[in-house]
Design goal:
Number of domains: 1
Protein name: Methyltransferase domain-containing protein
Helix content: 40-55%
Strand order of the largest sheet: 3-2-1-4-5-7-6
InterPro entries: Erg6_SMT_methyltransf (IPR050447), Methyltransf_11 (IPR013216), SAM-dependent_MTases_sf (IPR029063)
GO molecular function, one term: sterol 24-C-methyltransferase activity
Number of strands: 7
Radius of gyration: 17 Å
Keywords: Methyltransferase, Transferase
Largest sheet: 7 strands, mixed
Pfam family, one: Methyltransf_11
CATH superfamily: Vaccinia Virus protein VP39
CATH architecture: 3-Layer(aba) Sandwich
Shape: globular
Length: 260
């Protein structure tokens, strides 16, 4: 039921909000350490800086140049497009369950080596050992089974390949996610709580998010979409501020030899 509900929402968003300018749907990331370098972006990408910085943070520890990258849960394609245009991979494949989202991506997101495929995160439509890196940003909370997702990622990753993940959960659910990641078939290299960075990004990006809601979402639907977008004053934003919602990033690796 969870997967069906999220699928219905994203199908509606892809079909009804067809404007290509709405590129990203994540909550963003703002560096809090003054020594942390922000990515240099083309002027056309500057409006999406906070959302792009989340991808930059997630993939920052892994060299993507010349690799085959899969983004699971690519949504409207902004992240896959950013990786293809800025990080120098050989290929980037975005996969999403939503037909309308994939149709939008194929119409509007173009870069060398970039392609989009409709597919289920729990039954990925790719052969074994097809990718060097799997990216999963703000998507796993939609899945009925994170364990099944991790098994599929392990299957499609080449030995030594990385899963780069970021997502949100309630406080108790985040503890469960951390346990699931540690017990899964991939080796956890790093896990970070980035709730403060996400909160800062939401607040810095609040005016832009509200302008997008005003421009693209009919007024009767503003309240639920304010929660969805986590704008200031929404219950979602309040839960982040109170520490009831947590946001984490993680890097996991498929071992080059089978686990004992």
């Amino acid at each position: 039921m969870r997967q069906l509900g999220w699928r219905a929402l994203y199908e509606v968003l892809g079909a009804r909000v067809r404007r290509p300018e709405w590129t990203f749907m994540n909550y963003g990331y703002a560096p809090l350490d003054p020594d942390e370098e922000a990515p240099v972006l083309e002027p056309a990408d500057e409006p999406d800086r906070m959302c792009i910085q989340l991808y930059d943070h997630v993939v920052g520890a892994v060299e993507l140049r010349g690799t085959d990258v899969l983004e699971v849960g690519c949504g409207r394609g902004g992240g896959s497009s950013y990786l293809a245009r800025y990080r120098g991979p050989a290929t980037v494949t975005g996969v999403d369950l939503s037909r309308s989202a994939i149709a939008l991506c194929r119409r509007h997101r173009h870069a060398p080596g970039l392609s989009f495929v409709r597919g289920d995160a729990l039954d990925l439509p790719f052969p074994d050992e097809s990718f060097d890196v799997v990216v999963n940003v703000e998507s796993s909370h939609c899945y009925p089974s994170v364990e099944a997702f991790l098994r599929e990622v392990h299957r499609v990753l080449r030995p030594g390949g990385s899963l780069l993940l970021a997502d949100l959960r309630g406080q108790e659910e985040m503890s469960e996610l951390r346990g699931t990641l540690r017990e899964g078939p991939l080796e956890v290299v790093e896990m970070r709580d980035i709730t403060a960075n996400v909160c800062a990004a939401l607040e810095l990006d609040d005016d832009r998010r509200r302008a997008l809601l005003d421009a693209w979402i009919p007024r009767p639907f503003h309240r639920p979409f304010e929660r969805f977008a986590a704008v200031e004053g929404s219950s979602t934003h309040a839960r982040f501020k109170a520490g009831e919602n947590r946001y984490a990033s993680a890097r996991l690796v498929r071992a080059t030899t089978a686990r004992a």
